[in-house]
Amino acid sequence: MTTSHWALPMPTFEPLDRDVQVDVVVVGGGVAGLTTAVLLAQAGRSVVLLERNELGSGETTRTSAQLTASLDTRYYELADLHGPERTALIARSHTEAIGQIERLVQEGGIECGFRRVPGYLFAPAGREAELERELEAMRAAGLDVRMTAPSPGTRNLGPCLRLEAQAAFHPARYLVGLARLAVGLGVRIHTRSFVTEYGEEGVTTERGPRVRSEQVVLATNVPVADRVRFAARLEPYRTYALTLELTGPVEEAHWWDTLDPYHYVRPDGDVLLVGGEDHVVGRADDADDRYDRLEAWARERFPVGARREAWSGQVENTPDGVAYLGRAGAGYVITGDNGNGLTYGTIGAMLVRDLITGRESAWAEVYDPERLPRGNRGAWLREGLNAMSHLREWLTPGEDLADLGPGEGVVVRRGLQKIAVYRDEAGTLHPRSAVCTHLGCVVHWNSSERSWDCPCHGSRFAPSGEVLHGPAPEPLAEVTDFQAEVDRP
C-alpha cells in the first residue's frame, strides 16, 4: 500500500470487548465520525465510537486536505439540478463547515496548521466562458469570488476565479486533536471493532460485543452492512496524488481546474501536492502512468523539482453532486463525499447533531439520503448496468500463474472457480476467492496499492483477503488445497 504525505502515528484504543449502552453509537474513525462524536458529546449525549481498523486508517488522511466551498460539480450545474435556493444552502453549508473546523481547532487547542487561504479555479485555454458562467453561479450562491489574473509563481493558467477565506490544515494532526477532544468529553473510542450489523437498537461487532443505543450514525466512507441501498447510488473513484519539491515561491493557496477528471493543487511547506487522474475503482491498473501525467501537468504550471511521495485514495460520487447526509432507515448516514470529504464529513456531523438533538436544520432536505436522484438518471443507470456487466467475467479465462512475480497478483481459473492469487516477496502464494463478498463480482488486482479491487461497487481487499474498504461485509473466502494443486506434476 502507498503511504500518504499526511501519514503519522495515531492514538491507539482497545477493541470493544463487552456489551455497552449509550445514547449514540458512531461507526467510523475519520473526520466524519470523530466530528460527529465530538459535537454530540458537546450536546450532552453519551457516545461510543467504533472503528474497523485504527483512527484515520480510511480516506481522511489520503486527501489533499483542501477545505473549500469550491466543489467538483460546478455551481451552475448544481443550480440546474437543485435550484438557486438549495444551491445557496449547499454553498453556505461548506462555508459553515470550514468555520466549524476552525472553532474546533481553537476550542481543542489542536495543532494542525489550520490557516485561511484563497482558492483559484481556472479553465483550459479556450474554455474561459465556462469561468464566466461559474462566476455568476457562485455569486448567486453567496460566495465571495471574483475574476483575477493567475497568482505569482504560476504559469500557463490563464484567468482564474479567486475564492476568499478557504482553508488548509494537516488532516492527520486534526484527527489526533479531535480524538483527544472527544475523549476529554467522555466519548469512548474502540478501534479494531468491525460492525457487522446495525438496527434501531444499536450495532453488533464482528467479535460479538454489542452497543445498545437510541441512535446509530454510520460515518464510514460507504455505510457498513449495506448491500444495495447506498452502494447502488454511489460511484466509487480512485484518485491519485503526489508531492513535488518546490523550487520557487508560490502563493499559499489552493488551485483547481475544470477538466474532467480535474486537477487539484496546494503547497505544504517545501512541497507542492498535486492530485487528479481519477477513474472508477477496479477498471484501470496504470497508476505509474497517472502519476507521470500528474507530474508533467504540474511542471507546465508550477516551479517544482523532484518527486517525493505518491499515493491514491477513494471518493464516492452521487448522481446529483451532493452528499447523502441525515436519517436513513434505522440510523443516520454520512456518505457520498463527491471529492469534498473533509467539508461534507463536517457538514454531515453538524446536520446529524441537529437532527438527533431536535434542532431545525435548513440543510436537511437538500442532503436527505432518501431523496430521488436529480442528476442524469440515464447516465447513472448505464453506469450501474456497466458495473454489473463485470459479472460476465465469470465466463472469461483466467490469467497465467507462471508469470506471477513477487509482490504481484493475478486472477486464475480453476474449474468453475475464479481465484485471486498473490505471491509475496518470499515467493509464497496466497490464494483467496476472487468473488467480492458484496454482490459477487470478480475482483481485479491493483498493483500500486497491492489490493484486490471490485469494479462493481468499489470494495477493496488486502492480498490476504481482509476488507480494506466497503461495502463488502466479509473478507474474500479462503481457498483450500490450492498450493497442492499448483505443485502437482
From TrEMBL:
Pfam families assigned to the protein according to its UniProt record, in alphabetical order: DAO, Rieske
GO CC terms: cytoplasm; membrane
Coiled-coil intervals, chain numbering: none
Domain Rieske stretches: 396-479
Keywords linked to the UniProt accession: 2Fe-2S, Disulfide bond, Iron, Iron-sulfur, Metal-binding
Keyword Iron-sulfur on entry: yes
CDD domains recorded: Rieske_YhfW_C (cd03477)
Domain of life: Bacteria
Gene Ontology MF terms: 2 iron, 2 sulfur cluster binding; metal ion binding
Gene3D superfamilies assigned to the protein according to its UniProt record, in alphabetical order: D-Amino Acid Oxidase, subunit A, domain 2 (3.30.9.10), FAD/NAD(P)-binding domain (3.50.50.60), Rieske [2Fe-2S] iron-sulphur domain (2.102.10.10)
UniProt xrefs under InterPro entries: FAD-dep_OxRdtase, FAD/NAD-bd_sf, Rieske_2Fe-2S, Rieske_2Fe-2S_sf, Rieske_Fe-S_prot_C, YhfW_C
PANTHER family to which the protein is assigned, alphabetical: FAD DEPENDENT OXIDOREDUCTASE DOMAIN-CONTAINING PROTEIN, SARCOSINE DEHYDROGENASE-RELATED
Record protein name field: FAD-dependent oxidoreductase
